[in-house]
Fold this sequence. Notes:
By secondary structure, the chain is α+β, with helices and mostly antiparallel strands.
Amino acid sequence: MNATSPHIIDITHVSKAFGEKKALDDINLYVRKGEFMTILGPSGCGKTTLLRLLAGFESATEGEIKLGGRDITDVPPHRRPVNTVFQKYALFPHLNVFDNIAFGLKLKNTPKDTIVQKVKNALRMVNMSDYEYRDVNSLSGGQQQRIAIARAIVNEPELLLLDEPLAALDLKMRKDMQLELKQMHDRLGITFVYVTHDQEEALTLSDTVVVMSNGRIQQIGTPTDIYNEPANAFVADFIGESNIMDGVMRHDCLVSVAGSELPCVDKGFARDEQVDVVIRPEDIEVSTDTEHAQFKARVTSSIFKGVHYEMLAESDSGYEFLMQNYKHFAVGQTVGLCVAPDNIHIMRKERTANVLDAVLKGDTLQVLGVEYRLDTLTALNTQPEVQALAADGHSHDLQVRVAFGDIVLFDNEQEGTFTGDVDFILYKGNHYHLTVSTDWGEKLYVNTQDQWDLGDHVAITVPPDAIMFDHALDAD
């Protein structure tokens, strides 16, 4: 694909709200003409909402959408040169294959001879020639999906939108249709924008992958870039299997992780900067040589996956590693683990602690809806600046810091001071890193040894001695 080809889609500062919930938050994205772009993310991330905005089925709350340089933000669906293929094929059961495909052409009063030719061309494109007069109900799921695609492409759209079109198919059929779609895209030259939650599907089909979470774009790149150079811990965890662990960059090209110091190829970090370290399981070399290994570990699980063995091993330093290897190592066996420098990916941390808004008035601090007496805040009240603000009798806006590991979660609401819901879970080798949306609308980030599930409603306590002064925002 020519990197200088013009954009067919330009999305600028687009947001979409449903009531108080923001489904899309300041999306900026362009799609090149003829590109196969996949929008990838978990359920509820906003990917289908974005597709519906492109199709015209929803309208943006803010921002602008252009197609071929023309503003289509408020243009109705039937006036856009766009067609959509849905997960549920939406074929007309009372019409045969030919009439299903010809339906849109007939609405446009296309001449009969032209309809026949266009339908035959579309059937040929989806490898369904000679099926014109078949009952659509007699077709397999894969065949029905081909007819749905033929019905979309027969109108010669500039843009084809596909909303999880293979999700209803069984595994083998889905794999076959992935290949069909890729070949079809190459033959047609139409721009495809494809929505899926299936990471393998996105990496297989796409020229460009857009990874989304919570209504925001996390990363845009080629499948290779997304897999090998994830922008943050969410992308690294969501795309394929990963070992993601806390680390410290001792200096350029040397990172301390899981109790060992490993050479790497990353530069430009501050000395002793906290980082996230990503090691793919297939990049860990496993052997019986423990003397020269970077980690010494005991195999705790080994499962044959057909092509390779997937193993878990616990290192002497207490970290768990996920590994994939063609050679089998038995449960209980002691092994040596090594990782080549260029197989270690270093990411800057998005945050190193919780930074929370607070209000100080006299001898009382309010944070997350909870009031603390200043004399109980041992890490806060010894700060001269805090003492000076408390003494003047006015109300002051502050920011305070709370370490991830100092927040305590309970499953009994009576044990905490407020509550929230677990939104995201990331295993870091020897602990879990959770994102918790609190009742106050704030997000808290928590390190814990306890296992929680997505969606769990938890009680939360922030111990007084865990609250540290960050800086004053203003004074009344």
